[in-house]
Amino acid sequence: MVVKVEVFTSPSCPYCPMAVQLVEEVKKEMTEDLEVDKIDIMVDQEKAREYGLMAVPAIALNGVVRFVGAPGKEELIEAIKEASKG
Question: Which architecture characterizes domain 3-68 according to CATH?
Fold first, then answer.
C-alpha cells in the first residue's frame, strides 16, 4: 500500500528543512512505497486549515497529522510502517 506523506513547512521555519531532509532520507531507505508532498503553508493555507495545523513542521501520513515538529527517524519509520498496514 502506498503511504502518502505530507510535510507542511513555512519559509521562515528554522526546523522545516530538517523535517524535509528526514522524510527524503527515510524515503530512500524504506521499502514501503511513499508518495511525498512538500506543502508550503504560505502557498497552500487551505490545506493547513483543513488539517487544523497551528505550527510547522508537521507531517501527515495518509491524511492524518502524526507529527507536529520534526520526529526522530525511528519514530517516523515506525509510523510509516503502521500507516502502510492500513
Answer: 3-Layer(aba) Sandwich (3.40)
- Decide if pLDDT at 31 tops 90: no
Q: Domain ranges for the chain, please list them.
A: 3-68
Maximum CA pair distance of the chain?
A: 35
The amino acid at residue 60 is A
How many Cα atoms within 13 Å fall on the side-chain side of residue 47? Answer: 19
Residues 80 and 36: their CA atoms lie apart, in Å, by: 12
Taking each helix axis from N to C end, the angle separating 73-84 and 16-29, rounded to the nearest 10 degrees, works out to 60
Q: Is the pTM higher than 0.90? A: yes
Q: What span, in angstroms and rounded, lies between the C-alpha atoms of 20 and 79?
A: 16
